[in-house]
Amino acid sequence: MLKTQSLLALATVASLLTTTALADQVKLETTDGSISLTGKLIEYDGTSYIVETSLGVLRLKADTVICTGEACPIIAPPLNFAIAGAADLTNTLFPQLLAAYASGANVPLATDNSGEATRITATIPGEDDPAEIDLRATNSAQGLRDLLKGEAAVALSTRPLRDEEIATFEAVGKAPLQEHILGIEGLVLVTAQDNSLPSISVSQAADIFSGRITNWSELGGPDAAIQLYTRDGASGIAEAFNDLVMVPTGQEVSANTRVVASDAELSQLVAGDPQGIGFTRYSALAEARAVPIIGVCGLVVRPNEFNIQTEEYPLAHRLYAFTTDAEKPEFLTGMLDFLSSDAAQQTVEASGLFSQNFTRRAIDQQGMRFASALTSDGASDAIPLLREMVSEMVVSERLSATFRFETGSSELDSRARADIARVTELLRAEGAGAARKIIRVMGFTDSLGNPDLNRELSLRRARQVVEALNEIDPSLAERAELRPMGFGDVSPIGCDQTAKGRWTNRRVELWISSAPT
Q1: Do residues 232 and 259 touch, judged by C-beta distance below 8 A?
Q2: Extended strands (E) in 209-315
Q3: Strand 227-231 relative to strand 276-281: parallel, antiparallel, unpaired?
Q4: Is beta strand 131-138 parallel, antiparallel or unpaired with respect to 258-260?
Q5: Cα separations (Å) of 144 from 13, 135, 157, 168?
Q6: Alpha helices in 310-450 (DSSP H)
Q7: Collapsing DSSP states into helix, strand and coil, what is residue 312?
Q8: What crossing angle do the helices spanning 94-104 and 330-338 adopt, rounded to 10°?
Q9: Cβ 190 vs Cβ 270: under 8 Å
Q10: What angle, rounded to 10 degrees, do the helices at 342-350 and 94-104 form?
Q11: Per-residue model confidence as pLDDT tens digits over 102-161
């Protein structure tokens, strides 16, 4: 009853209207699917449907209902739209991506920063009016709320969707959302080069920045007060720090910090302060020292470009653009398709972030993972399997493409699905006139459950990736031999005591070599 009243509140009884040629049966259904009305469409005026129903003649706002039926007008999506969310993405990265796309599409842009939001005007060939694109810098949560309300066509976020956010979108019929990965960011905790802190856990970092730990002596260092350096709360890196470090421990950043205007300035200040600690992007490290992260299982991970790109560094995180299935103008659709292109990823790299383009590493550049394998629980029972794994890796190079799965599912996640296509393109480009390759497709799991069953599961997931590669490029077998292999839980790169660690360990890697002649 309440929903019916709510729907009728959006409608006003129209005055007597002359039935036009459009007066045919249509069905109007609310966007959450809870209520539908059937009647004769009298008129569509660009913003509302006027329909003759058993309740009388009603005027219904077009953005509250979905029209089905032959008489429904073909409604072109509006040219104007808004992009909202994480401040750093909205102010910096996305405008650069937009400019790169517009340049390739020969669409002139003009920027106006005089209002509350940055307005970009795009002169699109074939359109009478220019498209007006508003960029609203807020934060990830607010961007998603704007997307939910229909006030933004794209929400930019430094984190994945939370369960409660997914539930909210589902409740109004706007799920599942489309997830576009812009790039990867590596957040690092930094000190001066001569600071003696050897490593730090995420929980220790939270205690430091909340003010629970205030003296270096509490961490085995000198008797000296810890000086905290942070970015302003509106910055994307501060938002990421809060989500990755503070929220999981239920703490908040202390007010007793020195707030710095930029990542580069923070690194410079910390580098000159032996008692200081802060957080910044890996690309802004400069003269400061990145402190290795120690997991709850004792695994120490030092940040580097490769383990940030493969998301094996605990504070690596994806940067997202979310959209709904609402109809979009052609310019925006093309822009979203552009995000996965090489040109877009080059723009991501130029901005100081990590792209999804591939790099390679030999086995001798990944020593810590083997130290972890040899010191993990059950390692003594897995020595034969470890030897088998290393014998395959020692003649290969690892591609940074690392395939992971949706939480609680055997489905490849959004980045993995995109990487399947990128890998086939890479191998196709390298295949012309090149020696035949051997691609070792190696599956791994977390350590939960039976080791034998884990190995079977890891092999199934490796085969799943092989099938996906062959499906995209059936001719791949002519240029390469794909060898699926399952190694279960013998090579952990994250701590299985945490959800993030288990997700990190459930993966499929690609190791590539030339076939022997």
Answers
A1: yes
A2: 227-231, 258-260, 276-281, 289-290, 293-294, 300-301
A3: parallel
A4: unpaired
A5: 34, 14, 8, 10
A6: 330-338, 342-350, 367-375, 383-393, 414-431
A7: coil
A8: 110
A9: yes
A10: 140
A11: 999 999 999 999 888 899 999 998 888 899 999 999 999 999 999 999 899 999 999 999
- Each residue's pLDDT tens digit, 205-252: 999 999 999 999 999 999 999 999 999 888 889 999 999 999 999 999
CA distance 316 to 318: 7
List the one residue out of 497, 480, 470, 495 whose CA is nearest residue 436. Answer: 480
Contact, 319 vs 353, CB < 8 A? yes
What are the b/e assignments for 321-336, b being 16+ CB within 10 Å? Answer: bbbbeeebbebbebbb
Q: Which residue has the tokens 């489309």?
A: 178
DSSP annotation of 212 reads S
The two structure tokens encoding residue 42: 């009298």
The pTM (predicted TM-score) of the whole model is 0.82
Tokens of 396: 């290969």
- Mapping DSSP onto H, E and C, the string for 113-162 reads CCCCCEEEEECCCCCCCCEEEEEEEECHHHHHHHHHHCCCCEEEECCCCC
CATH of 185-309, one of 3.40.190.10, 3.30.870.10, 3.30.1380.10, 3.20.20.370: 3.40.190.10
Residue 406 has which token pair?
């949706």
**How many C-beta atoms lie closer than 10 Å to residue 319's C-beta?**
25
Which DSSP letter does residue 291 get? P
The two structure tokens encoding residue 153: 């066509």
**What's 485's DSSP letter?**
E
Say yes or no: do domains 2-68 and 185-309 share a fold: no
> C-alpha distances in angstroms, 22 versus 25, 28, 164, 201, 485?
9, 15, 42, 67, 62
Token pair 């093309």: residue: 334
Options 3.40.50.960, 3.40.50.2000, 3.30.1330.60, 2.60.120.260; CATH of 359-514: 3.30.1330.60
Q: State which CATH number among 3.40.50.2300, 3.40.190.170, 3.30.70.260, 3.40.190.10 fits the domain covering 81-177+324-350.
A: 3.40.190.10
Neighbours of 369 (CB within 10 A): 18
The strand pair at 397-403 and 48-53 is best described as: unpaired
Top-confidence range, 175-179, 317-321, 428-432: 317-321
Q: How far apart are CA 60 and CA 51, in angstroms?
A: 8
- Tens of pLDDT, residue by residue over 400-421, are 999 999 887 889 999 999 999 9
Q: What tokens appear for 420 in the block?
A: 């399947």
CA 267, CA 259: separation in Å to the nearest integer? 12
What amino acid occupies position 516?
P
Residue entry with tokens 């209902």: 65
Closest among 261, 205, 256 to 233, alpha carbons compared = 261
Indicate the domain borders of the chain: 2-68, 81-177+324-350, 185-309, 359-514
